[in-house]
């Protein structure tokens, strides 16, 4: 057997092992970050419960100043929707699917580019005894095989989590009146 054949067999075996390992990864992903904001929940709520206000501190909007967006549906609340198209952050839509005013908002997040994905996002507010508010930003969704394979090389929690952390810092600045 030639050296080339041995190398090809080893590469094929490594590829099979990689694909088998990727198949064992979880079928869903979840990213969550929390931040304490020195402002009452009634001051934070309008910044998370309404899409136009959300886009004032949205870290993805800030990544591309040329992002194109459009609002449709209700002006606020359930049915409110924002579509975007960007060379930097892709294209997709975000729609409010549920709200518990002053406490939480649930959203459907659909990506079209750079890859198709359908996830859920939520902001939850927890008033603190000292008048501050803890804000929790969560995103979760299915992990198809391609996502699982990418997850072998890219840590989704770290990648998206950094953006969530930046966004929550932006939110803090607005809510605390430092922006």
Automatic annotation (TrEMBL):
InterPro entries: Polyketide_cyclase/dehydratase, START-like_dom_sf. Gene3D superfamilies: 3.30.530.20. Pfam families: Polyketide_cyc2. It comes from the Bacteria. This is SRPBCC family protein. It comes from Pelomonas lactea.
